[in-house]
Amino acid sequence: MRGPARARRWSLALLATGLLLVLLALTLRTLERPVELTLAPDAIVPVAGHAFQIDLKRTLPWPWQPLSDHLGNPYRSALLLFEDGVQLGPPHAEFDAVQQIGHGYLHWGRLLIFASSDGSDPRANGRSYHARLSAGVAHALLLRLANGGTVLAVIGLAGWLWSARAKLAHAGWSGGRRLWRRLPDYGVAALIPSLLSGLALLLAPPLWNGSDSTIWLLWQLEWIPHHPPLYPFFMALVQSVFDQAPQILRTTQWVQHLLSILAITYLASAYRVRWQILLVAALAALGTSFNLFAHGFFTEGLANPLTLFFLGALLRLRRDGLTLGVATALGLTLLAASLSRHALLVLGALPVAYLILLALFSSNQRPRLFTILQAGALVVSVVAANGLITRYVVLQLDAQQTSILGRAGVYRLQEAYQQLPPGERDAWLATIAARTTDPAVRHALPVMAITENPWTGPHEAIRATPELYGHHPDALMNAAFKTFAFAPDPQTAAQWGRELQRALLGVGSPTYCPGQINCLLTATANSIDQVFPLDPRNHSVLLGTGAEFSQAAELYRALADTLWVRVLDDFLPLAPPQRLFLLVTSLILGLLAIALSRDGALAAMILTLWFGALLYALALTFITVVLPRYLSPIDILLWLGNGLSLVAILARGDATARPSLIDGPRAPSVPT
């Protein structure tokens, strides 16, 4: 026994050492220091035209290096360039502009490429040049630390798994036997989602989401961390195997549909009576918009199934209590879901909420406080793991760490600005700006409020504003959005209220996105004949998919006008009156189920799902703008709650069916 125990200790020591090295690398990446450099004339080299360059890499002592722009982080450099004390600009200029007209400079990689103010040779014009910039720990050193730590952690984890191989084999064998015994139940659970996905794959044309779809064909990893890493890596993997758009599209569809089928199967199989399994599977599929988000390049193609896996683990918490298996399933599925969509991290509150509600509603076998604390610790661990994984990926790619929350905030700021009478707008902006002490943020606020094209316009305008040279546009926009968002101002509060209303009651109308299915079809049509033709790159990457022909848009519009789409959209409304009716009806159904069943666990679970829907609506309100497809997780939670309510009502009085509602102890016991 001494040998295996020693091996386990060594394995855990290697794992801990590896993780500490990774944490050290992540911490060092946050360190920056200001630097001022004088550019020696003999180090300046002509490039072409008006452009000259100097290698800045060797100007700083180890381990520092200048923080420069590169493909994955094109606005990282804060370098300011001065000629005889006069600031030059603009920074982040195009190379052609510097070379051909002597305009601006760029700090790219190890090089500073610039032109003098009058196009003369900076080596011989008698003027002095100096730069003010930020330096960070060399990326090569950070990679060595992170990669070395990764290797040690993997070796340690492999050693620990090997030392526990007997227990793992026994658990796998037992799980396999349970899986075999329940194969008929899994078949029932998979029936409806398989039918829906099969019909989509055989009969339905692919769905598109404008430039948000084609970015996954043009660029993948460049969108991290704006998009969490899971979907970009998934698309990069598919593109590493296939190089033609039709193959990439078809493979993506098949993988996403298969994942949706497996997720609904896992969710519904938390029940054991087959009609209940079938009912829950049907309503879960309805909540996912009949798996149609799996039929194109949508991040929901992964996010929705992973959300369903998490909810399946949540139902098993109700069924079995917080056992080791349930805790593992909750942690892994929540982590995977949050790595596909940032906002899904708020659903981590659901296990804790359920256990607290269960303690309030159950008259016996109340969960101990320790169990609730364990669930809370699990959620905190997942949040920490999510942050570490994202930062680790960002370090590996040397990508932008700065959030782009402010880009979504521009829409909010501009809406509030436009709601005011023209004569009051400047005074209102001045009031908001007075709430910050940062002069750069004060200067950025009006630029954000009045510049057209909210997603890219203010970003480019900030970059081109001389007073804001040296500031990261996204960092300024983030700070400006926070200044606006937390201002105790009636106009700001009204905008928050409108955004929350959109998240709860939808953003559609009888003529625009009345329901999710119509919205998917019309968005595809608009993508094909309005969005894709604007960029020639779209045509080249769409070859062979059918979306390169603008005439194809009419097919989708014709489908959107069919009777069956209108009927299906009655269950997935996006227009406020219809969505309010659905919410009220679902609430009545849930309260009826709670009253009739007198089941504390059921009441706790239904209220937990409603709490999750509210949490997600608040997350949409605070961190983004509400788009129709962003409401899909709320649809899933809503229809799962309806499924639980219907099962409880229909099973009332059925002595053979009632035990399956919990399929185990009526309240969680001490974790095993």
UniProtKB/TrEMBL annotation:
Superkingdom: Bacteria
Keyword check for Transmembrane: yes
Bilayer-crossing regions: 141-162, 183-204, 254-271, 277-298, 319-337, 343-362, 369-389, 580-597, 609-630, 636-653
Alphabetic keyword roster: Membrane, Transmembrane, Transmembrane helix
Protein name per Swiss-Prot or TrEMBL: Uncharacterized protein
Organism: Thiocapsa imhoffii
Cytoplasm recorded as keyword: no
